[in-house]
Amino acid sequence: MELRQLEYFVAVAEEAGFTRAAARLHVAQPGVSAQIRQLERELGEPLFDRSGRGARLTAVGEAVLPYARAALAAVSGMRQVADEFTGLLRGRVVMGGVATPSVLDLPGMLAAFHERHPAVEISLVESGSGQLLDGVVTGRFDLGLLGLGGPLPPGLGVQVVVDQALVAVVHRGHELAGARSIRVAELKGLPLISLPPGTGLRAALEEVCGRAGFAPHVAFEAGEPYVLGQLAARGLGVAVLPESAVAGAESELHVLAVVEPELRGRMGVVWRADGQTSPAARAFIEHARRHLPDLAE
């Protein structure tokens, strides 16, 4: 039994598929499959049910997964202890993030950390806020950069890095194009264009509309804020998006402030404040918090 086999086994279990695990590990998919089959032969039992789409753990797979994770953690701990004697920080950190405003300079933050700790491998994964939050809670991500909506699960730390107004935008020929603002209550029944569920913007929109006594009618969804504006420019509805996402499209769009109450969108970095983290992860979290803004509420 080799550590590589255990690493591949854990990756396939967490990704629920051989192809996604291979992409995460930066290896060819046949190699992952071959190592898992070898591990199954050594254990004498199948670890995955391959009958459907993806790969689901069998009962045996579920039972041995904690031991595989513990073995990998023990080896990582041995390396970390040895590295502490040489002053070298090594390991792997995983950051999950959504599309971010350029003002945050995320590439600069990552480059500065790599320059300081070249032996630490950094992985950046893009996903929705809901999946990112779950990934931080379960330990898949060491740090998440995501939209903030409702309350966070216990045991997490958060630093707000973006706090900006959310605005409503329509095309220049829309009946609302003559107004400067729109009350939240006036959004009722309008065909809205929004980010999908699980994002901080969508959570903020649903929360403020719920307080006004109605559920928003979202006619179109898109995963990128700038696409929301493009849909509105084609006359498909009223887009709700961050104020910064309108920049450069004012010739096609009319912007309305959302009032009574004001609608705001927040983004933050989130990490596990409780539980064990590797030295590399701790250093990365501290570096990110120093580099990124800290907007006190």
Describe what this molecule looks like in 3D.
This protein has nine helices and twelve strands. With 297 residues, it is an alpha/beta fold. It folds into two domains: 3-85, Orthogonal Bundle (Arc Repressor Mutant, subunit A), CATH 1.10.10; 89-297, D-Maltodextrin-Binding Protein, domain 2, CATH 3.40.190. The strands form two sheets. Strands 3, 4, 5, 6, 7, 8, 9, 10, 11 and 12 form a ten-stranded mixed sheet that branches. The protein starts with a helix and ends in a 6-residue tail after the last helix. The relative contact order is 0.15. Residues 1-58 form the HTH lysR-type domain.
Overall SS class: alpha/beta
Percent range of helical residues: 40-55%
Separate helix tally? 9
How many extended strands? 12
User: For this structure, what is the CATH class of the largest domain?
Assistant: Alpha Beta
What is the residue-averaged pLDDT? 87
- In terms of DSSP E residues, the strand content is 15-25%
Quick overview:
The protein has two domains: 83 residues, Orthogonal Bundle (Arc Repressor Mutant, subunit A); 209 residues, D-Maltodextrin-Binding Protein, domain 2. It contains nine helices and twelve strands.
Give me some keywords for this one.
single chain, 297 residues, alpha/beta, Arc Repressor Mutant, subunit A, D-Maltodextrin-Binding Protein, domain 2, ten-stranded mixed sheet, two-stranded antiparallel sheet, 24% strand, elongated, HTH-type_LysR_regulators, WH-like_DNA-bd_sf
Topology:
Blueprint: H1 3-15, H2 18-25, H3 29-43, E1 48-49, E2 56-57, H4 59-86, E3 91-97, H5 106-116, E4 120-126, H6 129-138, E5 143-148, E6 156-171, E7 181-183, E8 192-194, H7 200-211, E9 218-221, H8 225-233, E10 238-242, E11 253-259, E12 264-272, H9 279-291
Parallel strand pairs: 3-4, 3-5, 7-11, 8-9, 8-10
Antiparallel strand pairs: 1-2, 5-12, 6-10, 6-11, 6-12
Helix pairs in contact: 1-2, 1-3, 1-4, 2-3
